[in-house]
Task: inverse folding
């Protein structure tokens, strides 16, 4: 299974000047755990990094930062780990594991960020694949029970 089958194409962006309070609101309103951080206009589309719900808590709130005064640019992770949309889910999981991240930027054939892949995006389809594999094992056992002594 390839990344292009499961990644989220709904990219929510926030400029680096966005307050942490506004960023938290964007995450809440969009039911997401990360925002792509962009530059200010006119370069707004350029991705500078990512800020996650964990960044808000561990990097900012735990240090007594005032959310309405601090910006995502101060607390974002500057390196967004990327994976091409043509990568397999297993390659993406390995990239997450080796990079120590739960989310990856997804790029198209031109290297442009076209979405985000999170662990949540992977869990359900991966579970379905494992279930299908378990079905193969069950079917094989059923065949052995129903047709004893036959060699296939």
Result:
């Amino acid at each position: 299974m390839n990344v292009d089958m499961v990644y989220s194409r709904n990219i929510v962006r926030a400029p680096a000047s966005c307050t942490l309070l506004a960023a938290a609101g964007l995450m809440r309103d969009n039911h997401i755990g990360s925002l792509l951080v962009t530059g200010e206009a006119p370069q707004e589309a350029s991705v500078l990094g990512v800020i996650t719900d964990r960044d808000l808590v561990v990097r900012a709130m735990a240090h007594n930062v005032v959310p309405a005064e601090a910006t995502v640019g101060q607390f974002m992770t500057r390196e967004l780990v990327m994976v091409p949309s043509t990568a397999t889910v297993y390659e993406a999981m390995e990239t997450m594991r080796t990079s120590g991240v739960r989310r990856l930027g997804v790029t198209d054939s031109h290297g442009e960020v076209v979405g985000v892949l999170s662990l949540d995006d992977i869990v359900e389809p991966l579970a379905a694949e494992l279930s299908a594999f378990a079905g193969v094992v069950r079917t094989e056992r059923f065949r052995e029970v129903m047709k004893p002594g036959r060699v296939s």
